């Protein structure tokens, strides 16, 4: 049985606790408070350490073993995919079982705590300047952009959408911002709702489904291999370019 289960229950090693998912959630919460809030680890290291530590299991029946693996993997997906929920619930001083159930319910349904945010992100003046420079040097949009335009983009105040030079590159850029915690979970829906971006092909407002599709295609390993792709040379590696920029942007906070 995983160390978490042994330490959190008085049952024998051969029994899986009925509330194991809650116990694992509480352990993840305690590690978050210690390792993330206190700055001991990066978020990715925290997630991986939790998963690798709690996944191994011995002395259980086959059905209990499958249940345990399912619980650990569910929490890993939550930690990796819904940083918005994790930060909201794990930043609290205490976490009760009903809090855990609410968080998992939001995760399983794909819903958010705040379903109607009226902005994508709030950036400092320096960060807006850096994003504007990046958008200009990488030709992210068809038209030239100013700092005012970029600020209005993230605050959902654009009078007309910005046309992408490449739907894939725009999706990669915003995906990188989301990956590093700058954007909310529902960023694609916010872009669609406020008609902030338009397609590179027909200048029609980009839908959330188009952004998801572009991001999925861009992250496909086959498309990422230069020798097996129809991507232009300058498009290969744009994901790394975005990630490097967003990391520097985060360091500037």
Please provide a written account of the structure:
- With 253 residues, the protein is an all-alpha fold.
- It has 2 domains: 3-109, no CATH class; 125-251.
- Helices cover 58% and strands 2% of the residues.
- The protein is built from 13 helices and 2 strands.
- The chain has helices at residues 3-8, 20-35, 43-54, 62-81, 83-90, 97-109, 125-137, 147-154, 167-179, 187-193, 208-219, 221-224, 238-251; strands spanning 162-163, 197-198.
- Strands 1-2 form a two-stranded parallel sheet.
- Helix 9 crosses helix 11 (208-219) and helix 9 (167-179) packs parallel to helix 13 (238-251).
- The radius of gyration is 21 Å and the shape is elongated.
- Residues 5-12 and 221-235 have low confidence and may be disordered.
Strand order of the largest sheet: 1-2
| Number of discrete domains | 2
Shape: elongated
How is the main sheet built?
Answer: 2 strands, parallel
Strand content: under 5%
Estimate the helix proportion, in percent: 55-70%
What's the tally of helices? 13
The helix/strand class is mainly alpha
Q: What's the rounded overall pLDDT mean?
A: 86
Distance between the termini: 42 Å
What's the SSE pattern? HHHHHHHHEHHEHHH
Task: State the total count of DSSP E strands.
Answer: 2
CA gyration radius, whole angstroms:
21 Å
- pLDDT < 50 runs, ≥5 residues: 5-12, 221-235
């Amino acid at each position: 049985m995983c160390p978490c289960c042994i330490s959190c229950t008085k049952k024998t090693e051969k029994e899986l606790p009925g509330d194991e998912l809650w116990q694992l959630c509480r352990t993840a919460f305690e590690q978050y408070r210690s390792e993330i809030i206190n700055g001991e680890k990066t978020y990715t290291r925290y997630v991986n350490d939790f998963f690798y530590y709690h996944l191994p299991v011995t002395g259980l029946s086959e059905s209990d073993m499958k249940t345990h693996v399912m619980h650990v993997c569910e929490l890993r997906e939550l930690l990796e995919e819904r940083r918005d929920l994790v930060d909201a619930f794990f930043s609290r001083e205490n976490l009760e079982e009903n809090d855990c159930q609410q968080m998992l319910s939001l995760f399983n349904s794909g819903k958010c705590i705040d379903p109607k945010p009226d902005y994508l992100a709030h950036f400092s003046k320096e960060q807006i300047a850096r994003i504007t420079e990046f958008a200009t040097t990488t030709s992210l949009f068809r038209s030239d952009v100013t700092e005012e335009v970029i600020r209005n983009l993230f605050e959902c105040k654009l009078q007309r959408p910005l046309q992408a030079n490449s739907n894939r590159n725009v999706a990669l850029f915003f995906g990188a911002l989301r990956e590093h915690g700058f954007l909310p979970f529902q960023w694609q829906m916010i872009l669609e709702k406020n008609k902030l971006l338009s397609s590179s092909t027909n200048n029609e407002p980009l839908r959330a489904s188009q952004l998801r599709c572009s991001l999925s295609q861009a992250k496909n390993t086959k498309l990422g291999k230069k020798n097996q792709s129809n991507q232009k040379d300058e498009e290969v590696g744009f994901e790394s370019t975005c990630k490097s920029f967003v990391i520097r942007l985060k360091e500037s906070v």
